[in-house]
């Protein structure tokens, strides 16, 4: 692994090279990478090839090399959801490239060139990668194609309109000329990009809608994919930080003498988040941290247990909070209703626990700092690092690495992890590469959890058997509150606390959703599908119970109330057809259904469950129907549904972070924070509803329906309505 | 301390209780083997020790000085090739971080049982966590690889 030279000023050449709104430049690229090597690793390790390494000013998104490889710079981090493949497909489609010539690499941190249109800055999240890039990347591909065609037309002296492009070959039938992209790359770079190029009609798509092989599969199958953890620079130290045992505690005093005497330990420094141990390798750093004697000041720490926090939230849920949505006369309550139901739900704190723990390689020198990590909100991370080290954001280079999962963990408003990395570098004070690594225990106990929530729902059925009342009160910590995203809060309502509840699709005449902001000193964060992680559960299980109360079928009853929401109804009908109804294939089993919209996509799932000998749920099969608009890569969509189901199922079955009396986190590793394992993974069958609407997200929407569908099946099987997650408590 | 990794002998200056994982990653710079948990819970660090899959994160160097250690970088053979091809054919990996360990364990299974049942597959791979939950495809790919080897 070589450190990429800083001899070129990235900003300067990108600025010089940025061409108009499409921001496209065609250029020679990737010197030193032989064709054979490139073919071996169809995706490029993002840290190895960056615009700097390309040597010649390529632009924002598309680079075409003399060897005919087309490299797409991807503004979204790749940690499993497929943007490297998906965004490259969009470019290749309009470019009429051959899939085998496509490559992908991470774009550098640059808020202007690489902003996410959903955020206004560079970042990945909210299942927006394909949705916000759909037109941008297609335009980038179409522009590149037009410039190549123009270059060919001039060289051959033929009208551009007579030229055709197919699978990376540019041809002119009349003259018999043809050539590959690489032959025209340099000439094409001389022209200004045309404006308002027409894009293909859906009927003309050749790659969009097909299962092109993922660009990063090969190197993720043979161990060659480089993650932050895998970087080794000359003279690099590994850094492990001793963090406080309670949230909000700080270092009172530290005795580092034994740590400093540990073999391999080079330095020990106090930083705002704890005490950093710098060592020659990971093992030495771990030994050094173990030898530290730290006294913690808990004056401002959260010392309540989750039991106490939950009691507080439950108490507050008894009265309505701030109004998030309402219609009809919900305040009349149970008046005039034939049958009523009230239910209280508790949702625990959840850790994301991505396979690769947080890590960052940082090399701070005078006037510049270079970093390599799984940055998910590059603009914020860049600014935070710059501020701590007294630099301008432009002096902070971020190489966005492949990351071993995130599920929200790496998207950090306020950039606390990037800040820790910057403080680690600042405190050491010497110019050498440092690799900050969190252990699994740091990860599980390190906070930034899915917030604990309590929901209270009251509902009722009128004399005609129709659901006539829905009154939901939510208590939970605001994710956006006090963060860089605080502007998202409208009229005191954090949308991420009520999403999926305030927009309940069912036509219920008297309806209210209200919110109390729960207070706790536990750092929280979005977790794959954010508010929908709890709202889908409470709404889809409560509606199921109300339908039962009304003697209605769970599917027909839902459909009857979805008149204004045809896409909800569409996936629900599709999943029922896929599973052939809600009757289980075998005795001793039951099925449940749930449907939920999140991040613009509609997903319905049916779960078939039985009971294990130890009385826990055994999930046999999940049927899933998804409507996410145009299916850019059906195979990736199916994979995201499968993965979302497994991720959501594992959490529903096993996951909770609990704070013991005094505020210490009880779980530390995968033994007590159980992950779903292969023998617990059901078979999954996915149907993608055909649509010509613009594509919407798939990274998160597979998650919300699985837990309520399981709960509905479980209630049918056992009579037990599970309202406190997880299903299986691990003592 | 001397260890043999991928057929080469290496002199490692390290305490004898240092886990093999850190010798492989930090000293030999073979990075296909991953750190995921450090307590033999997740399987990301799986390597072959005398042909058997082992958790390198809890295997002290002193126990493997006479062993033949193989990491994913040194793997070869029909089963390994069949597993890799099957993995690629249906795009098993998502984030990819656990996949070296999955591939190592799956290869060991096929060497032991060329025609594993689904229960065999689940039992063999139950120690390998994938937080992306690529399990449906892992199961399918192992079946596919076994079928290819049989043919």
From TrEMBL, chain A:
<dbReference type="InterPro" id="IPR012368">
    <property type="entry name" value="OxRdtase_Mopterin-bd_su_IorB"/>
</dbReference>
<dbReference type="InterPro" id="IPR046867">
    <property type="entry name" value="AldOxase/xan_DH_MoCoBD2"/>
</dbReference>
<feature type="region of interest" description="Disordered">
    <location>
        <begin position="312"/>
        <end position="336"/>
    </location>
</feature>
<dbReference type="InterPro" id="IPR000674">
    <property type="entry name" value="Ald_Oxase/Xan_DH_a/b"/>
</dbReference>
<dbReference type="Pfam" id="PF02738">
    <property type="entry name" value="MoCoBD_1"/>
</dbReference>
<dbReference type="Pfam" id="PF20256">
    <property type="entry name" value="MoCoBD_2"/>
</dbReference>
<dbReference type="InterPro" id="IPR006311">
    <property type="entry name" value="TAT_signal"/>
</dbReference>
<dbReference type="InterPro" id="IPR037165">
    <property type="entry name" value="AldOxase/xan_DH_Mopterin-bd_sf"/>
</dbReference>
<dbReference type="InterPro" id="IPR008274">
    <property type="entry name" value="AldOxase/xan_DH_MoCoBD1"/>
</dbReference>
<feature type="domain" description="Aldehyde oxidase/xanthine dehydrogenase a/b hammerhead">
    <location>
        <begin position="222"/>
        <end position="300"/>
    </location>
</feature>
<protein>
    <submittedName>
        <fullName>Molybdopterin binding aldehyde oxidase and xanthine dehydrogenase</fullName>
    </submittedName>
</protein>
<dbReference type="InterPro" id="IPR052516">
    <property type="entry name" value="N-heterocyclic_Hydroxylase"/>
</dbReference>
TrEMBL record, chain B:
<dbReference type="InterPro" id="IPR036010">
    <property type="entry name" value="2Fe-2S_ferredoxin-like_sf"/>
</dbReference>
<dbReference type="InterPro" id="IPR002888">
    <property type="entry name" value="2Fe-2S-bd"/>
</dbReference>
<keyword id="KW-0411">Iron-sulfur</keyword>
<keyword id="KW-0408">Iron</keyword>
<protein>
    <submittedName>
        <fullName>(2Fe-2S)-binding domain protein</fullName>
    </submittedName>
</protein>
<dbReference type="Pfam" id="PF00111">
    <property type="entry name" value="Fer2"/>
</dbReference>
<dbReference type="InterPro" id="IPR001041">
    <property type="entry name" value="2Fe-2S_ferredoxin-type"/>
</dbReference>
<dbReference type="InterPro" id="IPR036884">
    <property type="entry name" value="2Fe-2S-bd_dom_sf"/>
</dbReference>
<dbReference type="InterPro" id="IPR006058">
    <property type="entry name" value="2Fe2S_fd_BS"/>
</dbReference>
<keyword id="KW-0479">Metal-binding</keyword>
<keyword id="KW-0560">Oxidoreductase</keyword>
<dbReference type="InterPro" id="IPR051452">
    <property type="entry name" value="Diverse_Oxidoreductases"/>
</dbReference>
<keyword id="KW-0001">2Fe-2S</keyword>
<dbReference type="Pfam" id="PF01799">
    <property type="entry name" value="Fer2_2"/>
</dbReference>
<dbReference type="InterPro" id="IPR012675">
    <property type="entry name" value="Beta-grasp_dom_sf"/>
</dbReference>
<feature type="domain" description="2Fe-2S ferredoxin-type">
    <location>
        <begin position="1"/>
        <end position="75"/>
    </location>
</feature>
């Amino acid at each position: 692994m070589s450190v990429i030279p800083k001899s070129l000023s990235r900003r300067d050449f990108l600025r010089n090279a940025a061409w108009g709104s499409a921001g496209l430049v065609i250029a020679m690229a990737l010197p030193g990478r032989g064709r054979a090597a490139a073919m071996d690793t169809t995706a490029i390790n993002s840290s190895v090839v960056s615009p700097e390494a390309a040597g010649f000013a390529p632009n924002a998104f598309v680079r075409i090399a003399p060897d005919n490889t087309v490299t797409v710079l991807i503004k979204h981090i790749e940690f499993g959801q497929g943007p490297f493949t998906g965004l490259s497909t969009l470019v290749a489609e309009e470019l009429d490239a051959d899939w085998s010539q496509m490559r992908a690499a991470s774009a550098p941190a640059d808020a202007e060139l690489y902003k996410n249109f959903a955020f206004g800055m560079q970042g990945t999240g909210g299942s927006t990668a394909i949705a916000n890039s759909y037109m941008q990347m297609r335009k980038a591909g179409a522009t590149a194609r037009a410039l190549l065609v123009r270059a060919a037309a001039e060289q051959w002296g033929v009208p551009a309109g007579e030229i055709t492009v197919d699978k990376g070959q540019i041809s002119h039938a009349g003259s018999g000329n043809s050539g590959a992209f690489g032959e025209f790359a340099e000439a094409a770079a001389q022209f200004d990009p045309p404006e308002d190029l027409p894009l293909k009609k859906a009927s003309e798509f050749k790659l969009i809608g097909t299962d092109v092989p993922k660009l990063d599969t090969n190197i993720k199958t043979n161990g060659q994919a480089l993650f932050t953890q895998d970087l080794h620079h000359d003279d690099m130290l590994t850094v492990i930080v001793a963090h406080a045992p309670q949230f909000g505690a700080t270092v009172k005093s530290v005795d580092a003498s034994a740590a400093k005497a540990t073999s391999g330990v080079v330095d020990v420094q106090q930083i705002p988040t704890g005490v950093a141990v710098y060592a020659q390798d990971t093992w030495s750093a771990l030994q050094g941290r173990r030898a530290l004697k730290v006294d913690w000041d808990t004056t401002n720490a959260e010392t309540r247990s989750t039991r106490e926090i939950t009691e507080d939230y439950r108490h507050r849920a008894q009265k309505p909070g701030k109004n998030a949505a309402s219609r009809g006369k919900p305040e009349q309550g149970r008046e005039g209703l034939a049958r009523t139901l009230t239910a209280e739900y508790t949702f625990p704190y959840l850790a994301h626990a991505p396979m690769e723990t947080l890590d960052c390689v940082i090399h701070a020198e005078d006037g510049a700092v270079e970093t390599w990590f799984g940055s998910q909100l590059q603009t914020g991370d860049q600014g935070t690092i710059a501020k701590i080290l007294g630099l301008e954001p432009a002096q902070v280079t971020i190489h966005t690495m492949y990351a071993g999962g995130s599920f929200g963990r790496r998207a950090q408003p306020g950039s606390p992890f990037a800040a820790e990395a910057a403080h680690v570098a600042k405190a050491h004070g010497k110019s050498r590469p440092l690799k900050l690594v969190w252990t699994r225990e740091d990860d599980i106990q390190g906070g930034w959890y899915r917030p604990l929530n309590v929901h209270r729902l009251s509902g009722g059925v009128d004399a005609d058997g129709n659901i006539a009342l829905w009154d939901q009160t939510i208590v939970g910590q605001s994710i956006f509150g006090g963060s860089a995203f605080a502007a998202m809060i409208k009229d005191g309502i954090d949308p991420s606390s009520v999403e999926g509840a305030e927009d309940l699709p069912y036509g219920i005449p008297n309806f209210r959703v209200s919110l109390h902001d729960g207070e706790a000193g536990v750092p929280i964060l979005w977790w794959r599908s954010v508010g929908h992680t709890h709202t889908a559960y409470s709404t889809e299980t409560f509606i199921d119970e109300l339908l039962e109360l009304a003697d209605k079928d769970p599917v027909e009853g839902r459909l009857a109330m979805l008149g204004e929401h045809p896409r909800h109804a569409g996936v629900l009908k599709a999943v029922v057809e896929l599973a052939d109804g809600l009757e289980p294939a075998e005795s001793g089993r039951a099925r449940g259904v749930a449907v939920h919209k999140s991040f613009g996509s509609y997903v319905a799932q049916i779960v078939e469950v039985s009971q294990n000998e130890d009385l826990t749920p055994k999930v046999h099969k999940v049927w899933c129907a998804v409507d996410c608009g145009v299916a850019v890569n059906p195979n990736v969509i199916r994979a995201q549904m499968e993965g979302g189901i497994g991720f959501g199922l594992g959490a529903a079955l096993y996951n909770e972070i609990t704070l013991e009396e005094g505020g210490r986190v009880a779980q530390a590793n995968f033994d007590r924070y159980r992950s779903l394992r292969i023998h617990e993974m059901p078979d999954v069958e996915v149907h993608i509803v055909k649509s010509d609407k613009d594509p919407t997200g798939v990274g998160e929407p597979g998650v919300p329906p699985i837990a309520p569908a399981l709960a509905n099946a479980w209630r049918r099987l056992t009579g037990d309505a599970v309202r406190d997650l997880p299903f299986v408590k691990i003592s | 301390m001397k260890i043999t990794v991928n057929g080469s002998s290496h002199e490692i200056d390290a305490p004898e209780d240092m886990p093999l994982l850190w010798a492989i990653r930090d000293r030999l710079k073979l990075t296909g083997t991953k750190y995921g948990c450090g307590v033999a819970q997740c399987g990301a660090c799986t390597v072959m020790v005398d042909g058997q899959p082992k958790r390198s994160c809890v295997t002290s160097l002193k126990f493997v000085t006479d062993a033949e250690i193989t990491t994913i970088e040194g793997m070869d053979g029909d089963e390994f090739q069949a597993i890799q091809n099957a993995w690629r054919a249906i795009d098993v990996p998502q984030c990819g971080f656990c996949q070296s360990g999955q591939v190592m364990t799956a290869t060991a299974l096929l060497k032991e049982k060329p025609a594993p049942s689904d229960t065999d597959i689940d039992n063999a791979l139950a120690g390998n966590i994938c937080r992306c939950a690529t399990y449906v495809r892992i199961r399918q790919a192992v079946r596919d690889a076994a079928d290819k080897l049989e043919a």
